[in-house]
């Protein structure tokens, strides 16, 4: 009997590193084996110093070593790891690449993390986020809100913007909870950044939010008793309900946010900044496309990475 091919995708962003292991069926379809998320804050201080902090690299190394162990246990023979905003911006990124080469080589000889452009990041996110959505729901605009950047992609084009929950927290929203002045400065920055994205919103029928800020907001808006990916995936949220959630979050301290059973502890101190991005994106989507709801997808760039291996 032929051993099924198992492949793995690793996404290393500004705030978290994530793993998806999938098995390839004879017909080419994919069956999820493992999906794991670890907050490592690789982008700690990058916006200010232009360098990856040694502690952040070490946190990422420890998490990736655990992932490599999981891959070997699962029989993975092909792997792709992508590194996004934090490493694109870092002067000492070769320290990071050497670490990934040493670990990923145990799974597939010569492998190391690839730094991908914002445009490729957007395309991979689009492929993953829309995989379970029918074509009749399109045209789509996928919004991948990360720690250092936010990508927007539609059939007509894509844009990568330098705004994410970690970047905005470190640059503008440092108080706990953020002050009104800090929030206003972050909001003004987001609005200015979105000016260049606005043309992409024309003729969009369905907006799809993916990655941790959106999925956490979905769980909170649905008032889930625990984080439930099955109930979050393809959830359709009314804009007004989502805005009520973001308003509440911004007023809370990080410790108050951590009390929620659906909040990852490592996300609690930066999600207020993510909420500002969401609020301004929704305002623009309402203005340009007249939407009253948004779909949240549990699938994202990880699913696009795994598919790219095939």
TrEMBL record:
CDD domains: ASKHA_NBD_MtPPX2-like. Gene3D superfamilies: 3.30.420.40, Exopolyphosphatase. Domain 2. One of its GO terms (molecular function) is pyrophosphatase activity. Residues 27-307 form the Ppx/GppA phosphatase N-terminal domain. InterPro entries: ATPase_NBD, GppA/Ppx_hydrolase, Ppx_GppA_N. PANTHER family: EXOPOLYPHOSPHATASE, EXOPOLYPHOSPHATASE 2. This is Exopolyphosphatase / guanosine-5'-triphosphate,3'-diphosphate pyrophosphatase. It comes from Corynebacterium timonense. The lineage of its organism: Bacteria, Bacillati, Actinomycetota, Actinomycetes, Mycobacteriales.
